[in-house]
Amino acid sequence: MARPKNQDQRRSEILSAAKAVIHTRGVTGVNLKRIADQAGLSSALILYYYADVDEILAAAYRTATEEFLEKREFLLTEAISPTEQLQRCLALGTPYPGTREEAARVLYELQPLILNNADAATWSREFFSRQTALFRSIIDAGVRTGEFRAALDPNTVAINLVALEDGLATHALTGLMTPNSIEATLVQTAMHMVGGSAARGSDGAGTGTGTGTGTVG
């Protein structure tokens, strides 16, 4: 039997394989054989680690959200202004081509899972709560420094930013809007809601570089 640390590594490999299949075939194209083929493992071995495909997908959803949150929450540890934190946070949430788009596609493909899978539903609530709390902490910091003069309750602003970001990201994945235009819309709307001004040297567009080499968002 595999050692505990090797089990963790194997589970990670299986989830990475599942995400790769989701990205190339969509969630409707995911099955045990395709995950096994992508991971270079037998279906029987995968079932040693996970009960079924649904459990794999629920775990993939959780890890995708955790990775997203870790990168965003790291911004709060950096010595930059609340305005810069907010702009960079929104840039991370814009699905530019590359790793950000791939991560966003996995999250959106797995959205239906939260309606029928209790574990995924629980983590979806946690995901939303932590994103809202992150925006709220940035807004509160901006109010304290005088950078923001929010007319609305900070929690209401935070909820609206999460919802707007989720909605616009869909349009990037379908090609209706470009990532640059989405980021610009997010930044302009956010600054209007918090009563702030974009950081000097930024027009609210393209701060995510658009190269796809940035972190997940």
Automatic annotation (TrEMBL):
Region of interest (Disordered), ranges: 198-217
The yes or no answer to whether the keyword Lyase is present is: no
Signal peptide (residue range)? none
Do you know which InterPro entries this protein is assigned to? BetI_C, Homeodomain-like_sf, HTH-type_TetR-like_transc_reg, HTH_TetR, Tet_transcr_reg_TetR-rel_C_sf
Q: Name one Pfam family in it.
A: TetR_C_6
List the biased-composition ranges (Gly residues).
Answer: 203-217
Which GO molecular function, any one, fits this protein according to its record? DNA-binding transcription factor activity
* DNA-binding region location: 31-50
Q: PANTHER family, alphabetically? A: HTH-TYPE TRANSCRIPTIONAL REGULATOR BETI, HTH-TYPE TRANSCRIPTIONAL REGULATOR RUTR
Tell me the ranges covered by the HTH tetR-type domain, including all copies.
8-68
Please give the PROSITE patterns that the UniProt record associates with this protein: HTH_TETR_2 (PS50977)
Full protein name:
TetR family transcriptional regulator
Q: Which UniProt keywords apply?
A: DNA-binding, Repressor, Transcription, Transcription regulation
Q: What Gene3D superfamilies does this protein map onto?
A: Tetracycline Repressor, domain 2
